[in-house]
Amino acid sequence: MLLVTTPQPTARRVASRAALMADRVDQKLVGVVENMRWFTGDDGKRYHLFGEGGGAALAHESEVDLLVQIPIVTEMRAGADRGEPVSVSAPDSEAAKAFDRLARCLVETRPRIRTHPELRIG
Predict the structure, then answer these.
(1) What number of helices (H) and strands (E) belong to the chain?
(2) Residue 83 domain boundaries
(3) CA separation for the pair 46, 63 (Å, rounded)
(4) How many domains does the chain have?
């Protein structure tokens, strides 16, 4: 299971409850993904619109690695509206590179997939 949070303390608290749930249902935590980490303005400066440190704090308290920080990228939102992942809509963007790092990390980690046949949706 990946824990996904934003830098905000409230989002970190919600994600920490997901970590507790993972433990109760015998799911291994692979790591933390921090979404909406920063926005890079036209001036090239990074702006931390939602604060800083939530992903690192969640990773620390959950005893897993902070795998990647994904920035806010306009092309990602626009591509998603068209049904295109950011790797297609803006392949050279900071966000596409972050998702590529996450994918490589998951391939390297090779998390164990657990199934629960008794759980059915339908």
Answers:
(1) 5, 5
(2) 2-109
(3) 28
(4) 1
> Is 62 a domain residue?
yes
- Residue 114 within any structural domain of the chain: no
Between β-strands 39-40 and 46-47, what pairing exists: parallel, antiparallel or unpaired? antiparallel
Tell me: the pLDDT tens digits for 75-84?
888 888 999 9
Beta bridge partners of 68: 33
The Cα–Cα gap between 32 and 115 comes to: 21
28 — alpha (psi -120 to 50), left (phi > 0) or beta? beta
Evaluate whether 75 touches 93 at the Cβ level (below 8 Å).
yes
Q: Give me the pLDDT at residue 58, please.
A: 96
pTM: 0.83
The tens digit of pLDDT for each residue in 2-43 reads 999 999 999 999 999 999 998 888 888 999 999 999 999 999
DSSP 16-65: HHHHHHHHHTT----EEEE-S--EE-TTS-EE-TT-S-HHHHHHHHHTS-
Whether the pLDDT of residue 113 is over 70: the answer is no
User: What confidence score (pLDDT) does residue 66 get?
Assistant: 96
CATH value at residue 72: 3.40.50.300
